[in-house]
Amino acid sequence: MAVELPVAAEVDFPLYVVSDEESEDVLVAAEGVEGFFVDPEEESSEVAFLGAREVERGRRRVENAVLEVTNRQREKIGEYFIGQVVLSDTDVEKPGENVSRVAYRFFGNRCEYPEAERIWPRWASGIALEKGEWLRWPVNYQSAWLHVVQNSWFATNRRAARYGVEDVVHLDGAQISTKSGFFCALGEAVNGPGGYFGSNLDALADCISSSFGEGPPVRIVWRNFQASREYLDDAFLDSIVRLMREFRVDLATC
Hints:
Helix content: 10-25%
Order of helices and strands: EEEEEEHHEHHEHHE
Strand content: 25-35%
Largest sheet: 6 strands, antiparallel, barrel
Radius of gyration: 20 Å
Number of domains: 2
């Protein structure tokens, strides 16, 4: 059965802020963006910001631009290094209103997860994430959810480590049907809703071996393990088991 997308979180504040990395001068702060969260094969040179609250027209070109994702309190919750940007076009500003559209030519990076555009407003809403919320999104959104988890985790100055205090964490294999889903589930089990504990095998090893925080979990109980085996390839699962054994984490499957 297809999973319907959750209702989009309302954005009435500058969600995206582009600034000069060196001077920290803001170039544009806007409610929305078009052309940034795109599949690499569909990239165009222009990225447009919608509902702009701030526009710096005096600087048309910046060599090292950064795009921050911010919440309602203008606190950074995500970050992308962009590189060179050049102001392309600005709609006419009407008295008492926001600029409707500001376009830049991007010569650097974009986000390769189109679905992240729908997920970031939820993270910026100020409403606490709930346990299992990643499961409410369609399966094809799990990679983007994991991307947002990882990006936000490090953008808010947290480390690849365990912050939770439970020595025993639980996974439900009936909920894990993708590799991204495994890391979403593990991050939540270890560090709570929206928590990060690796996004691939190397990153998982970094988290487990970190000397920061509470150290690795003592035991991981993976219920309905066979259900996951039906979806995940044996090589991936065997690598998880070997990694846990290498770092002396007791992995119990049932």
